[in-house]
Design goal:
Length: 164
């Protein structure tokens, strides 16, 4: 139940953050409306918000983990520099992708830009299935479900592309 509730909460947050960023931005990034941000300024504020919220979320999730024993703040610093570096690299990649997505929204529109940005999820799924072989010990029938998932993803992305 805890995992399901967390999944629903995270899905709601993931479904609304882009809308909040989009509403903060001017429709024309060259001729800014009063009170609206350019794509670059929006990303600066978004990045600062992510940084600040990490202190809250990390603290809460370390004290009340979804699985496993609670951790102390000192446990975070026991991670290897390499592990922390990979976290930073992942955040940088996500930040660059998000920046490109909101810049592209000026031409493609926010809905299409966000939808195509979800292609990153498809790449991650392909990587997990074919490179890391995460489902190699999955029960029978899983491959059919994975094939259906990939087909639905490709159809969805294709529909977004042709909708413009």
């Amino acid at each position: 139940v805890k995992g399901l509730a967390l999944s629903i909460l995270c899905g709601l947050l993931m479904g609304t953050f882009y809308l909040c960023v989009a509403r903060s931005m001017a429709e024309d990034p060259v001729a800014l409306e009063p009170g609206k941000l350019s794509p670059y300024t929006a990303m600066v504020f978004f990045s600062l918000g992510v940084l600040a919220s990490n202190f809250v979320f990390n603290t809460v999730l370390m004290r009340f983990p979804v699985a496993g024993a609670p951790l102390a703040a000192a446990d975070y610093f026991r991670g290897s520099p390499r592990d922390h570096l990979w976290g930073i690299v992942g955040g940088m990649i996500w930040g660059v992708g998000m920046t490109m997505s909101i810049i592209a929204a000026g031409k493609a529109g926010f809905a299409i830009s966000y939808g195509l940005g979800q292609g990153a999820t498809l790449v991650a799924a392909l990587w997990g299935v074919f490179v890391w072989r995460e489902f190699r010990e999955a029960p029978p029938g899983t491959n059919r479900l994975l094939a259906a998932m990939f087909a639905a993803f490709f159809i969805g992305l294709g529909t977004i592309v042709i909708s413009r």
